[in-house]
Write a structure and sequence with these properties.
Elements (H helix, E strand, L loop, with lengths): L6 H6 L4 H13 L6 H7 L7 E5 L5 H8 L3 E6 L2 H10 L4 E4 L14 E6 L12 H10 L1 E12 L14 H10 L3 E6 L13 E7 L4
Parallel strand pairs: 1-2, 1-4, 2-3, 4-5
Antiparallel strand pairs: 5-7, 6-7
Helix pairs in contact: 2-5, 3-4, 6-7
Length: about 210
Amino acid sequence: MTGQSDRWAELTGGQAGEEYARRFARLAASGHDVHGEATFCTALLKPGARVLDAGCGTGRIAIRLAELGHHCTGVDVDSSMLAVARREAPAQDWLLGDLARLDALGLDTDFDLVLAAGNVIPLLAPGTGAAVVAQLAGALRPGGLLVTGMGLDAAHLPVEDAPVTLAEFDEWCTRAGLSLRQRYATWSGDPYSDGGGYAVSVHTRPAT
């Protein structure tokens, strides 16, 4: 652990798991598609791919990806969120850990895709972004993909000011040896325009 609280912990006190799960259950019951991230990732993957859901929360995305035939490991620093994931899918791999110290978990480093959805990047502990991106990049096989979704303004974040800009994030990715392949405004694949409030980015690790 870094010893520094992430912004998510400051917002929730590390006790948000059950309420977070109820929120998405209500959305699903009302007819909303709550599987956009999994659908997006599956379109990028071959069948039976290995996926690391970094900041997996209650496991909503990883569980859906497993239902679609992929092999998913979830990591989160919030034990209340992981408790829900373990209850919902006890056969899947759920690990408690700090993304800035991902290498301490002893994971293989040949994932086809690493996902950081749900504003994982903006809600990291201040000053840890570059280290986390380096850890996520290090978990990818050559040619693997880092897929992220992040709010860029108050309308798309649970905090008033955006902690991270796209320029900063892309710089972290470049330093980690990743290059930008695609960027969208939504998980549905709508085009991203400069100044947009949300960005879904696909970065790739070089194949050789």
